[in-house]
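SEQUENCE-TO-STRUCTURE ENTRY
===========================

Subject: a protein chain together with a token-level encoding of how that chain folds.

Sequence line: the amino acid chain in single-letter code, read from start to end.

Question of interest: how does this chain fold, as expressed in backbone structure tokens?
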Amino acid sequence: MGRAGHLTALTAAAIAALLLAGCTAGDGPEPDGGTPAPTSEAPADPTTEPSPEPTSGGDTIAPVAPGEPSPSGSATETAAGPPFAANTQPDTAEPTDEGQTFISVTNVRVAVHDRYDRVVFDLDGKGSGKPGWRVEYVDQASDDGSGHAVEVDGDAILRVSISGTATPTDSGVEEFSGDRIEPEDTESVDEIVYRYWFEGYTTAFLGIDDGERPFRVFLLENPTRVVVDVQH
């Protein structure tokens, strides 16, 4: 065989060896039962949560675990409510579904917040309607119907009248049984005097320290609450 024929034979043998090596280097398991050698890129750790991404303001958004809903605001006693009005004029709202909704005040709560005291009237009962209200400063506290004077501690008296309410026999819930609430740590509200239901209205009086102060009123739902904030 000449030199050219010898080189051709060697070349053919080399190509055959390369083809054989390529057939045995696939992605499947090795003949001895082993697994392919790992690549240089390590797999991601499934227990590691993604890094929070910055918002436009420089804050971060906490990652949400799989299967959990995205965080959202909820109607709690920390709700900011509308801005305080510049004056102390009456605040009113009309009830809805009168004659088809029967709700009663079940509890009255008070707490101090930054720059205001908050009084919450919890309501419960039947129907999908919403309560209304008329909240205003009055010269004297007196009971509906009888007109009897009601003693309230404070330099000013804020009358809270919640409309669209019903008797406990109609609402099916027990009405708040408290009379006077005298909070210790509040700055604006000296006393709360609850006066029960009368002909579709539930009335309470707030004794306000140091004269008339700006206030705001708004509704929170699920559960239903009428909120009165009195500015410090």
